[in-house]
Amino acid sequence: MIQHAQEQPRYRAITRSNINQLPQWETMDSDLRRAVEVVSLVLPFRTNAYVAGELIDWSRVPEDPMFQLTFPQREMLTDEHYDEVARLVDRDAPKPEIDEAVNRIRLDLNPHPAGQMTHNVPTLAGDDLDGMQHKYRETVLFFPSHGQTCHAYCTFCFRWAQFVGMEGLKFASSEADTLVRYLRKHPEVSDVLITGGDPMIMKSKIMRQYIEPLLDVETITSIRIGSKAPAYWPQRFVTDKDAGDLLALIEQASERGKNVAIMGHYSHPVELSTDVARQAVLNLRSAGATVRMQSPVLRHINDNAKTWADLWRTGVGLGAVPYYMFVERDTGARRYFEMPLVRCWNIFRNAYQQVSGLARTVRGPSMSAFPGKCHVLGVTEIGGKQAFALEFLQAREPDLVRRPFFAKYDPKATWYDQLEPFSEADRPFFIKPSDAPTPTIDLTVDNRPAAARKSRESSWL
Question: Would you state the pLDDT for residue 450?
Answer without folding.
Answer: 36
